[in-house]
Amino acid sequence: MLEIRDLVKTYGNGPRAVDGLSLSVEAGDIYGFIGHNGAGKTTTLKCISGILPFDSGEIFVDGIDIRKDPMAAKRIMRYIPDNPDLYAFLTGTGYLNFLCDIYGIDETTRRERIKKYAELFEIEPKLGDLVGSYSHGMCQKLALIGALIQQPKLLMLDEPFVGLDPKAAHTLKGIMHELVENGSAIFFSTHVLEVAEKLCNKIAIIKNGRLIAAGPMDEVRGDSSLEELFLELTDE
Amino acid sequence: MKPLRTLIKLYLNSIFRFPVIRHSKDPRERRNAIMGIVAIGIIVTVYGGMAGMTSLQMISAGIDPAVPFLMISAMACVFALAMAFAQGSATLSGFADFDTLMGMPIKTGTVVFARFFALYSVEALYCAAYLLPCGVVYAILCAPAWWFWPAFLVMLLLLPVAPVVIGSGADLLISAAFAGSKYKKGITSAIKMILLLGFIVYAYLLPRLTESFMTAPGKTADMIARIYPPARWFAEGVTGNFPLVLLFVSASAAVCALFVLLLNKTFLPLHDRLSAGYHVKNYRLGTLKRSSAAKALFLIERKRFFNSTAWVINTIFGSILIVVFGIVAAVMSKTLMQFFRQASLERFVPALVTAILIFCATLSPTTCCAISMEGKEIWIAKTLPVPAKLWLRAKLLLNLVLVGPALLITITLLAVFYAGLLSPSAIVGLYLLPVAALLFTTVFGLYINAKLPRLSWKSDTEVVKQSSSVLAMLGVCFGLVAVTVIPMLAIGYPWVSAALAAAVLAASAAVYGTLMKNAEQIRRNL
């Protein structure tokens, strides 16, 4: 579903933020992406989603080259940043309806999906309010609904659990499982290693822009816990 | 005093972006910040030069030296008032770091004064730009008393205080009155536009004022002095009336102190009220209308525009001026035609009208900050599976929809009411050139903004009023008026107008082509 080959990204004259990263995410994967602050997680996610241009390397989303056909790639994937700034001048419904227009979702389906996810995240009564009045957690929920109504083949999330209340976090985990059971793939960054350990079937660890470990959770982790492994690898 | 100094430094840095110039590793961002400073410098120089020349001409013609001071200070005050009115509540209360600052051990009064200073400092810069050259001209030609310079400089610094207080105070009151309403932004924008329009119409309908501008500047001065007495105190103070210096200084200081004290007392509840969001009780998901992607993008652009009071006031003003001009010109058509015939100025009418229409239609296109206004929400536009061309076209369309109808209606009004004065070819020219100019500034505004985007901002005012693309576009607008009108006046109207229109249309097509060709790259590089 996602194939990254030798990705290199540099900001201005600075050092390489991502340095020769290669990674493969299959359909049905919940792939965790962990690393210390400034390791290059968000930069990688932004390069995949087409937000950032990159210096070299290749990114394929379901076989589509993000550089050659970004529109086709964007149609099947969604990215939610860690602190989603949404259109504050729209109501929640207005924002979701806008996304449905862009993705060409018909009236019946959009209503069904918005209702389903809004109920799951317990945000329906707030959908008539302006997004500008939302708390961080509510923005996060709205951004997630905006991504889920599209039923993307590849869902990329940057720190999705930050700001979510425990119930919403639990709901999101359930939705993630449901999504991959239906053939999608999820690639997400997190600092919460316990969540990554329980939720993901695959894991990648990045340090200073370089991938230092990647693969199935059990293989990468071995006999130690993810926390122990992470500390061991990143302290080296 | 240290927190106040630190806060003032912080705000001045955010306005003029000195840290970006010094420390940014992104060459584009650095260039953008430098361009902003350069653009401010050019505007300040141009305005200052014009004010200085006006002052020089008037004093050389034997007019009382207080008159140019009065007229230019009144103009500076009107600008300061309008700017403070447009951005007062956003700067004083709606700033993004409110929570951070109020959570720090800093006195509320310090924060209030620092915010007021942030609002005041930009207006003080422009006031200084207008009036310093006048002071220099006056000092050279009239050899004033020794205390002229200290008094002049102090008064110059205090000149924008009262207009900023009045403008921002009015804005805060209006914003507070409609806080919590779903259409808060729309209502406040509409009220502000009506008030500003009312002010313009009032000024225009003062027949003695407009008449005396042409014939007797002294009478104009009397009129201005009656409308805004502090301008008279300023003008007569700097030209030798020391008691008026004291009156002006003490009145300005008192107004400032009173406003800051009052704001200090009400700061938290006021912010609380202003930040009240709109809430619907028992909301249930209703019918959802479906639109095409192009229409959805345009509707978003339109909502974003009408949600920003500063943007609305800054850009829709041209359209309103066009309509006001059309109506006034239509109503006064007989008188004006008679005047032009008696003065044998008929041949200049098409060029004059074209110049006014081009100026109003191109004054401040929405496109020159349309990309910057995406701000931190730009990630949405960048991840949408729509061609970037469609996204850019929505921005172009907004400006054309806002200005185009007003322009066409006004030209048609002029064509009907001035049919006796304008030949058919002149009427065709009247349609061609302003419309071509509108198309050009629409596409060129977006082109400049694509080159000089500013996506990191805390208040929309920073983008709408102070960003380099907006300031650069102001220069382009003035340049376009000069480039199109001077040949028309020098050579003649119809054919020159047609040739210019063709040239401007060709330039518009070229810029549009460049934009569309590089659309994906523009969006990707943001």
Shape of chain A: globular
Distance between the termini of chain A: 32 Å
Main β-sheet of chain B, in a few words? Answer: none
Name the overall outline of chain B: globular
Largest interface: A-B, 48 and 43 residues
Query: Helicity of chain A, in percent?
Result: 25-40%
Beta fraction of chain A: 25-35%
* Poorly predicted sequence stretches spanning 5 or more consecutive residues of chain A: none
CATH class of the domain at 2-82 and 153-235 in chain A: Alpha Beta
Low-confidence stretches of chain B: none
For the termini of chain B, the CA-CA separation is 40 Å
Count up the helices of chain B: 24
Task: Give the proportion of residues in helices of chain B.
Answer: over 70%
Oligomeric state as shown: heterodimer
Task: Provide a quick synopsis of the model.
Chain A has helices at 41-48, 70-76, 92-103, 107-120, 136-148, 166-181, 193-199, 217-221, 226-235; strands at 2-10, 16-25, 30-35, 56-61, 64-65, 77-80, 154-158, 185-189, 202-207, 210-216. Chain A is of the alpha/beta class and 236 residues long. Chain B contains 24 helices and no strands.
